[in-house]
Write a structure and sequence with these properties.
The protein has helices spanning 2-16, 27-36, 57-62; strands spanning 20-26, 41-45, 50-56. The protein is of the alpha+beta class and 64 residues long.
Length: 64
């Protein structure tokens, strides 16, 4: 799902000049992406024990 969101966001970023994608996810999903998939993101933990993934679309696209 996150990869689909990234693809769609990259398409939209060329139209509306958006550079950031925020995704709310569980801590387990965040751990999977930190360990298995290097997408160049930072994460923040919220009070509900979820994570917010902060993805810089420009940096992500440069690393493709």
């Amino acid at each position: 799902m996150i990869k689909i969101a990234l693809e769609k966001s990259l398409e939209a970023s060329k139209i509306i000049a958006c550079r950031l994608l925020l995704v709310e996810t569980t801590l387990n999903m965040k751990s999977y992406y930190l360990e298995k998939v290097n997408m160049g993101f930072e994460w923040f933990r919220d009070r509900k024990n979820n994570s917010i993934l902060f993805i810089d679309l420009k940096r992500y696209e440069e690393n493709l």
